[in-house]
């Protein structure tokens, strides 16, 4: 009887361990998130949780610094609404370029911009992304701009970049309007489009000819001038 009880108890303990192990595996599967970029670790490698809080699929996600161009698309598949992913970004190249540009060994922080393209072909930029001040960033779309909200590590409060993105959008539109105005002022004149008044050049030519014409008066018969012949009245003629 004791052997049977021991066997049942041992079986129950083993079964509990098996269930516990399975639950841990399931839990790991649930918490495992998709990534943006390549999963790496090291110095100047930023790891940020990104939440797509827009109502659109993000189909392209790329990053550039103020010292280089945008990288290739970092998404292997569409980033769907309400999904959370882990972004891995290696900033070593950007930081090295920043040091070279500033001609100094002091570590400087480059300015990063994220380019997003959505499934409706619309494209937006997230300016001055705060890699050194964020753990989780939520991407939002309002008023025809895209911005992020995040809990600032340095300020210990919720921060929104909406106002900053609105100002950048406004400044860009004003700059484009000014440039368009300048281009219009500098546009070369199309001679074919100029309307000249009708002018009768033939009539003007005839008028000039009449003004320049020499009028020869015929001699008056029966009268002579006092100096006729240029010899005078006192000169004897042959």
Under the CATH scheme, which architecture of the domain at 35-171 would be assigned? Answer: Sandwich
**What is the radius of gyration?**
46 Å
| Major sheet: arrangement of strands | 1-4-2-7-8-9
Main beta sheet, described? 6 strands, mixed
Unreliable residue stretches: 24-30, 223-233
Mean pLDDT: 79
Strand content: 15-25%
Class of the domain at 35-171 in CATH? Mainly Beta
Fraction of helical residues: 25-40%
The helix/strand order is: HEEEEHEEEEEHH
CATH topology of the domain at 35-171: the name is Immunoglobulin-like
Q: State the fourth-level CATH superfamily of the domain at 35-171.
A: Domain of unknown function DUF5300
Which structural class should the secondary elements be placed in?
alpha+beta
Count of alpha and pi helical runs: 4
Number of beta-strand segments: 9
Spatial gap, N to C terminus: 191 Å
What shape does the CA trace take?
A: globular
């Amino acid at each position: 009887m004791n052997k049977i009880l021991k066997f049942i108890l041992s079986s129950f303990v083993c079964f509990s361990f098996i269930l516990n192990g399975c639950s841990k595996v399931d839990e790991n599967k649930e918490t495992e998130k998709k990534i943006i970029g390549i999963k790496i670790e090291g110095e100047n490698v930023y790891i940020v949780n990104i939440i797509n809080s827009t109502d659109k699929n993000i189909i392209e996600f790329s990053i550039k610094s103020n010292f280089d161009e945008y990288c290739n698309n970092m998404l292997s598949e569409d980033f769907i609404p309400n999904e959370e992913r882990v972004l891995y970004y290696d900033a070593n190249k950007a930081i090295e370029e920043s040091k070279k540009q500033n001609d100094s060994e002091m570590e400087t922080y480059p300015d990063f911009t994220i380019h997003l393209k959505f499934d409706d072909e619309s494209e937006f930029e997230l300016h001055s992304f705060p890699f050194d001040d964020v753990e989780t960033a939520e991407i939002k779309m309002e008023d025809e701009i895209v911005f992020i909200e995040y809990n600032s590590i340095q300020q210990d409060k919720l921060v929104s970049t909406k106002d900053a993105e609105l100002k950048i959008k406004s400044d860009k539109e004003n700059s484009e309007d000014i440039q368009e105005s300048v281009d219009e002022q500098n546009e070369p004149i199309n001679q074919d489009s100029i309307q000249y008044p009708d002018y009768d050049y033939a009539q003007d030519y005839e008028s000039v000819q009449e003004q320049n014409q020499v009028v020869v008066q015929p001699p008056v018969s029966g009268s002579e001038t006092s100096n006729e012949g240029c010899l005078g009245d006192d000169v004897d003629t042959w």
